[in-house]
Amino acid sequence: MSSFEGLRLIRREIVANSKVSLDDLPALILKVEPNANSLDLDAAFYLHSIVDINSPFQGHEFYRNCISAVIIIALPAWAKLITLGRKRFIQKLYGEEYRDVKSLFRQAGLLQDPPTIGDIAWWDHVSGRVRLEGDRLKLERARIAERLSLELERKKLILQGITTYPQWIAIEDNTAGYDVLSYTKTDYGLANKLIEVKSTIASPLRFYITRNEWEHALEVGEAYFFHIWNMQTDPPFLYEKSSADIAPHIPQDNEKGKWKTAEIPVSIS
Predict the structure, then answer these.
(1) Which of 69, 103, 109, 182 is the most exposed, having the fewest neighbouring CB atoms within 10 Å of its CB?
(2) pLDDT digit string (tens) for 144-163?
(3) Model pTM greater than 0.85?
């Protein structure tokens, strides 16, 4: 709470003293505000860097903008929890150390029962931003894993005396059913090697396969491979699996419906 009140003072002084530099603001605030010593001004200046500069510094909206910025940018653990729903999120913040946090949410008017349309819109907005950020991070990890597979395949091709470069298919066609096109040498020339690349940070290690990916793997047969990169290790560790390795873990359709996505354990033989 003290950092939020510190931010309020910072924003107020910026408006009142537009010619004062940000570096000079702490001294000015300590001079003009009797209670400034009780505030966390270092944290307040961090908040100033992440909270929308146009945000009002009075009322519920001020607190809501501060809370949403902190959760989305600085508290990934809380960000995951907030997607569970309002009640579940607050239930997770148990213990004496979270009493001030719950008070802050009440100060922001976010725990009203029943919630207003505006309250619901705030929770939905923050949850949506968190999910978007999660999707962005997943895509970032996926691209890193695909690049690792490209580099690995390129080295393998060089060792075989093959000068043809592997192709990054996922960049060109996200519906192809595989991510990297590589090659192997046979008695009859080059043969295609189709690679579906997965990245995982799950514990225990696992990845997900879509029906489209699996159907394409069945069509291609022995030329289809899975590269599963464990992104928790440094450097990332590769598990290369054939379609035959994955097959025992693919669910079966039944009268209740057809599967669309399957969870596959990485620790498979």
Answers:
(1) 103
(2) 999 999 999 999 999 999 99
(3) no
